[in-house]
Amino acid sequence: MKTLIVIPARGGSKRIPRKNVRIMCGQPLIVYSIENAKALREDGHMDVDVAVSTDDEELGGIVKNRGVEVIARPAELATDTVTLDPVIYHALSRMEELTGKTYDTVITMQATSPTLKMTTVKAAIEYFESHDFDTVLSATNKPHLSWGVDSEGRFVKNYEKRLNSQQLPPNYLETGGFLITRRECVSPEGRIGQKVSIFEIPEDEAVDIDTYSDWVLCENILRRKKIMFRTVGKRSVGMGHVYRCLTLAYKLTGHEVVFAASSDSDIGIEKIKESNFPVIRIENDDEFIRVLEEEKPDILVNDILDTSSEYMRMVSERVNRVVNFEDVGPGAKYADAVINALYEKGDKLHNEYYGSRYFCIRDEFLEEHPKDFCEKAENVLVIFGGADPSDLTGRLYNIAKNLHDDHPDVKFHFLLGFAYPYADRIVTCEDCNVFVHKDVKRVSSYMAKMDLAITSQGRTVYELASMGVPAIVLAQNDREAKHVFAGIQNGFINLGIGSETDDETVISTIEWLLATPNVRREMRKLQLQKDFSKGHERVIKLILNDDDDENTDN
Fold first, then answer.
1. Which residues neighbour 338 within 8 Å (Cβ) at sequence distance 6 or greater?
2. What's this model's pTM, rounded to 2 decimal places?
3. pLDDT (tens digit, 9 = 90+) per residue, 249-269?
4. Are residues 179 and 230 located together in one domain of the fold?
5. For residue 170, what are the domain limits?
6. What pLDDT is stored for residue 548 in this prediction?
7. Cα 491 to the chain's mean position, in Å?
8. Assigned domain for 39 exists
9. Same domain, 201 and 78
10. Is pLDDT of 507 > 80?
11. How many domains would you assign to the chain?
């Protein structure tokens, strides 16, 4: 089947002057449609010729440099009032004269659809050829409540019943991306046959540049990256990795985000799905390599702790940019950037970014405000993350109840993570002033009411610092104990690894802080000196490789 692709492109444009030759994301606008057409020609499965109909010498030069035939458009076909039908007919007639061919199919591809993908056009051609249609049009489904004007100039509704958009009947809008039709349907008066079908295309491929706002939208779409987060979330390692990735994913609006998680990360996968991001289960590194080859992300973010050299070499061969979190393994040197916000210093490789400047605090903590300092500590928060693998919550629960007799006015508030496995044992005991809160959606609002906290040595210490809540810290494990932010220099009393700290030490520290408001006030002052508001911006720049001054800000 012989196919002709015609790209109509005038030199004149009133809304955006010289639109078709203007540079969009590094190349003239018309080049996007030319590349799509050439890719179809070079695919090898179709007999395809490509021609650009233009009245503009500069535009014609761009076309010729890319190996595509230029059809000189007569002046009478280059005015604002001429439709595309006679233009396409003229180009078709000239190409049949030049090639000696009689084409079976004619495809109009607009120069103003730069986000349209070749794979979409190819799928539409296959759809056209496998059915008995005369014409197939690109369109997007936009159901809306709309109004029109009747013959007397009155506004009238174009619907029978007001419904939500997802309940409205289809409303297909032509995109201008492509129009596929049989040769016999093309004439100076038209290109559409009797049997017509719609080929629905994705909304981000449907933009037809007509205004400056369309231009800006297309630039944003073309700059969009596909970003894959590989993470882990299970009881043995907690949920901090998943929460950090989700925090960043929410910030990457406009980019395509997909998650990959180990198959045993059941609680992490559940949380990702609950957040409405796509997630792929993987069994091992070999399977993950296959996922990378299928998904083809532009950027990979590893939030899986230490990486091996072999793993990093494999992923770096398949992804343009790789960014790792909390990686102190041998593979770290192969990453484009390593972000270790929980460590204040390290080996300082060329690609490492350390310290609290790179902590990604959740939005809720930027919106909440610390309460005024209270001389008498009346509310104590106990929070040990999403899973609490060492069950420090259970120990503190018993301690809190035992402290009630000596401190009857102090209330202990336990915030249980959704993955905490012993939640049935930790229940509110009002007689002991112990209150248990489960499935808390806004942790910051609880922290903002507290006078003291007891927590593990992970990301929660940064959140407590942002709320100015003095805290006692018990690390879950050896690795967490290396997170040096949670020290007295930043407003924390660090008791070391929880499993190695006896109850008497914990109790005496709680009682000391309850009795010494001056110490708590100084701890709070040290905490509030930290500014976490720009951390996520710094990290996003590193992920996207936004070449700003942050690249020299190690």
1. 323, 324, 325, 327, 332, 349, 351, 352, 353
2. 0.76
3. 999 988 999 999 999 999 999
4. no
5. 2-146+165-221
6. 52
7. 34
8. yes
9. yes
10. yes
11. 3
